[in-house]
Amino acid sequence: MTGGLRPAAAGLGASAGYPDVRPRRLRQSAAVRSLARETDVLPRHLVLPAFVREGITEPTPIGSMPGVQHHTVDSLRRAAVEAAEAGVTGIMLFGVPAVHDAIGSGADDPDGILNVATAAVAAEVGDALVVQTDLCLDEFTDHGHCGVLAADGSVDNDATLERYVAMALAQARAGSQLLGLSGMMDGQVSVVRRALDAEGFQDVLLLGYAAKFASAFYGPFREAVDSQLTGDRRAYQIDPGNRREGVREALLDEAEGADVVMVKPAMAFLDVLREVRDAVHVPVWAYQVSGEYAMIEAAARNGWLDRERTILESLLSIRRAGADAVLTYWATEAARWIARG
Predict the structure, then answer these.
(1) Using an 8 Å Cβ cutoff, are 107 and 140 in contact?
(2) What are the structural domain ranges in the chain?
């Protein structure tokens, strides 16, 4: 070859790379790139988290999450319909009650905001969306923790499980198809599974928030659910430095009967997400949390990032790391972009 560009071959028919190997061939046009693409994001991969607040008559913006609202029951129904029409396949509901107490009594009240909203959304969308509910006490307690407190101020794991059972049954009766067990209590999946089965709710799915880390990225969410948190949650959420522990928790949740397991947050824990995906045999979801959302929105509003491209790339990275579905506050908007092409 002229110019000395071809390296000497080791033997007849052997190739040492360039110029025989040219990876750019697979990037030469949009059609070729589409054929070669390993991972994509489709509307069916997206779940919309949504907040419904007691005592408001109009949707109200959440200051730390631009573009996200506290819904009324009626506006939540409309948001659910819009999500379904965009091709989103699930909606995860969070309730924000007007009254909080030590044990989160509103969590299992059939007339509480979350259960009323669940029934309304389920009636509105039918099978067009998988109606999902957050099963945790932090939105309902006056101390902001995910469980019942013991006398010394610690979270009482087993007393909390009793509250989770009551909450699970209330949500199932309201029409929730999937319960998101996000409290990180030991044994929560097995205890709730047995209770549901005993009451005839064998078909209600359980999402185990298996690898939920004690992350700084939850900050805006605390405003969204009007959290009254005292202290922190490091005694039950996973240390952000621990990768193997996240995998262990996922395996435990799978063994206890979780139908799906979660990694949360998503973008700062993509290594854990990949390992969990490789370890378990159930679907793996990831939650693109409020802090991830707020960072991109803030940068985009300052003109530092292309908002649409960055959002879609962030979702693609989560899918590429192994998520079968992504909970994201951009679900409906992103689904419309994807459908538009």
Answers:
(1) yes
(2) 42-340
**Cβ contact 276:242 at 8 Å:** no
Query: Out of 142-146, 288-292, 297-301, which region has the weakest mean confidence (pLDDT)?
Result: 142-146
Among the listed residues 171, 56, 188, the one whose alpha carbon sits nearest the alpha carbon of residue 122? 171
* pLDDT digit string, tens, across residues 228-277: 666 677 888 999 999 999 999 999 999 999 999 999 999 999 999 999 99
Relative to beta strand 69-71, strand 60-61 is antiparallel
Give dist(CA 309, CA 21) in Å, integer: 30
Tokens of 312: 């879609």
What's the pLDDT at 230? 67
| 181 within 8 A of 207, measured Cβ to Cβ | yes
Vertex 45: Cα angle to 41 and 50 (nearest 5): 120
Looking at 100, 145, 193, 212, which residue is catalytic?
A: 212
Model confidence band, residue 5 (pLDDT cutoffs 50, 70, 90): low
CATH superfamily, domain at 42-340:
Aldolase class I (3.20.20.70)
| Element of type H or E holding 265 | none
Question: For 98, which DSSP code?
Answer: S
In order of 116, 135, 206, 258, 335, the CA distances from 160 in angstroms are: 23, 11, 17, 19, 37
pLDDT for 145: 87
Token look-up 């996200």 returns: 68
Read off the pLDDT band of 15 (50, 70, 90): low
Per the residue annotation, which of 77, 143, 264, 319 is the catalytic one? 264
The sign of the dihedral angle between the CA atoms of 18, 24, 26, 28 is negative
Least confident of 81-90, 155-164, 214-223: 214-223
Q: Where are the alpha helices (DSSP H) in 93-218?
A: 113-125, 157-174, 188-198
DSSP one-letter code for 71 = E
Any catalytic annotation for residue 264? yes
- Rounded CA gap, 71 and 176, in Å? 18
% of the chain residues with pLDDT over 90:
86
